[in-house]
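TA notes, week 10

Several of you asked for a full example with nothing omitted. So below is the full record: structure tokens for the whole chain, then the designed sequence directly under it. When grading your own attempts, check the secondary structure regions first.
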């Protein structure tokens, strides 16, 4: 889409909200990657305490934990809105996440146990 906006006129002063064609949860995205790679994957949401324990074990700085937890807890509902911007500007619908995951399956280690 960016190439279209930069190379074709009529976009000066415009503000575009660009999304894919569907709103997906993290679990939906993991399922799409699993299907694309042929791997058995699952998404498990952590409690705040579990997340803190994991971040601590990974060596993350404790002073950032509250920010991270608050950021994930206060995601605005607007992130689930789907727009038609890409199709209107480019003339074709945006690619689905599943199609993107399939095209990039090797980056996820297709078939790696």
């Amino acid at each position: 889409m960016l190439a279209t906006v930069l190379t074709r006129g009529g976009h000066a002063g415009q503000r575009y909200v660009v999304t894919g064609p569907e709103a997906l949860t993290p679990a939906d995205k993991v399922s799409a990657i699993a299907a694309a790679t042929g791997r058995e994957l699952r998404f498990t949401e952590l409690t705040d305490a579990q997340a803190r324990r994991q971040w601590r074990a990974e060596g993350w700085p404790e002073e950032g934990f509250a920010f991270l937890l608050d950021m994930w807890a206060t995601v605005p509902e607007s992130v689930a809105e789907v727009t038609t911007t890409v199709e209107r500007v480019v003339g074709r619908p945006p690619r689905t996440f599943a199609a993107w995951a399939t095209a990039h399956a090797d980056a996820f280690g297709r078939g790696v146990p």
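Residues 52 and 81 are 30 Å apart (CA to CA). Use that as a sanity check on your answer.
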